[in-house]
Amino acid sequence: MRTDVVAGSVLLAVTGVFWFQRDYSSRTSGAFPDLVLVMIAVLGVVIIAQGLRRGDPERKPREVDPRMLGAAGALVLAWGVLMGLIGFTISGLIAFVVMALLIREGRPAARTLLLDTAIGAVVVIGVFLVFTRVLLVPLPVSTLIGM
Question: Which of 45, 84, 113, 128 has its CA 20 to 30 A from that of 12?
Fold first, then answer.
């Protein structure tokens, strides 16, 4: 409960800092960043509300294994290296699935692994399309296979 309230409050604080530091050259140039800030603020309020609404005092958070934290950090570094070799989409999908495996407790079933892979593909391809087609930001392509 308390971590949700803290996380939501941090989101609202960061959003507030960015909101009051806006300075656009024209009214239309800030439309997308303003929309993103409003969406983040709404999500912060929702997270705070959920944290206040569900207060299960018996539920204890899972302890974080330092090895898992180290593995997650190594994964992020490996993703950065792999992005230059095999491109954003393939490395992003690999990183998504490996991170999902790190987060899960126990050994996942084949169905769960397939579901994680499908969700990862949708998320990675969606991010790729938003950045390359909408925002016109080029993402790394593979130097090995050329895509």
Answer: 128
